[in-house]
Amino acid sequence: MAGKAGSVPFDFSGYRVLVAGGSRGIGRSIALGFAQAGAAVSICARGAAALEETRLEIAAHDVVAHAQSCDLAEPQAIEAWVGAAAAALGGIDVLVNNASGYGFAEDDAAWLAGFQVDLMAAVRASRAALPQLARSGHPSILHTSSIAALRPRPGGPSYGAIKAALSHYTMSQAQALAPQRIRVNAIAPGSIEFPGGLWDRCRKDDPTRYADVLARIPFGRYGTPEEIAHAALFLASPWAGWITGQTLVVDGGQLLNG
């Protein structure tokens, strides 16, 4: 597939893509990647300023760009965003569930944040988008899991457990939706660094921990949001047309070192 204006390896012209948690970091890069490849894109998140900034970046690719503030812990807000996005874009072909409540603590609040945002927001957005996806000629759902789902965690067990549930849901959802030819996959990023993100803050506030994690990445560097976006575009493309129910690890070999 030729990319739009030869700039990216995939052509998503005519696709309608929704990215939950799409205003910064990985979600922003995924949204911009699809826009660069020609797709109409809708994003949601809580912060209005970052949303509008990213919406303008999407629109700069000469595609339909829609953004709506949404608390992804609220079922009604998710339904409202999906409905408004489908109306603005003219349908839905790809749904990307990227948001996280970043529940790293051991208290109930951390567990509930992860359950509501990392897991149930994906369930609810999928449910809301399903009628539109069923009418698409190339429907796909992508979830953002984590390598934390695939190994024990000395800290933040709530985050890993909820992401493991999301990876399991990916398999069950893929099996249930296969008769409708709706593919469902997940991406499990390793440690990703971007301005204002978790590892950017860690580099400044806890350089010892930052260096310890870096030392366990065989590629010798943290990953970038764009590298996760590249995997997302592949999994949503016809080149991945017989891939469903999978969690793709993108981590520079980080899991190899435990």
Q: Could you please describe the fold and organization of this structure?
A:
The protein is α/β, with parallel strands linked by helices. It has one domain: NAD(P)-binding Rossmann-like Domain (Rossmann fold, 3-Layer(aba) Sandwich). Helices cover 45% and strands 14% of the residues. The chain has 8 helices and 7 strands. A 7-stranded parallel beta sheet has the order 3-2-1-4-5-6-7, sandwiched between helices. β5, α5 and β6 form a beta-alpha-beta unit. α1 packs parallel to α2 and α3 runs parallel beside α4. It is globular. The N terminus is likely disordered.
Write the layout of secondary structure elements.
Layout (H helix, E strand, L loop, with lengths): L15 E5 L4 H12 L3 E6 L2 H12 L5 E5 L5 H15 L4 E4 L10 H26 L6 E5 L12 H21 L5 E7 L8 H8 L1 H9 L9 H12 L10 E4 L8
Parallel strand pairs: 1-2, 1-4, 2-3, 4-5, 5-6, 6-7
Helix pairs in contact: 1-2, 1-8, 3-4, 4-5, 6-7
